[in-house]
Amino acid sequence: MAELTMKKKRPKNLDLLSIKQPLPAVLSILHRVSGAGLFLFLPVLLWLFQSSLASPDSFAMVKGLAGNIVVKVVLLGLLWAYCHHFCAGIRYLLLDGHIGIEKEAARMTSKISFAVSLVATAILGGALLW
Fold first, then answer.
1. Is 31 annotated as a binding residue?
2. What is the C-alpha end-to-end distance of the chain, expressed in Å?
3. Which domains does the chain carry?
């Protein structure tokens, strides 16, 4: 009888988009998404790099392509993905060393990781892209 009561209390359908995730969970999800995005865009970035080194004409073509606003936004997104993945990776290395595993410390390191990645993206994006 207790088993029947227990099954009725469980949710039947979880709507993952309506559940409020804690900040460390959002950081973890974005860490995975940024890693996948960097991995998928790596061939494009390598092609652009190779093309820029091939000849002065191809360098001018890549430079002109990088001047497009849409390409700049994509490159800024990739720069944010790199900075976020790097900062979150350092946080996970510290967590593996049992540093900052308490609930409040984990929340604080999540906030720090987000803040540092956004500031680094703004500084590097301003210096490299604009």
1. no
2. 67
3. 22-129 (1.20.1300.10)
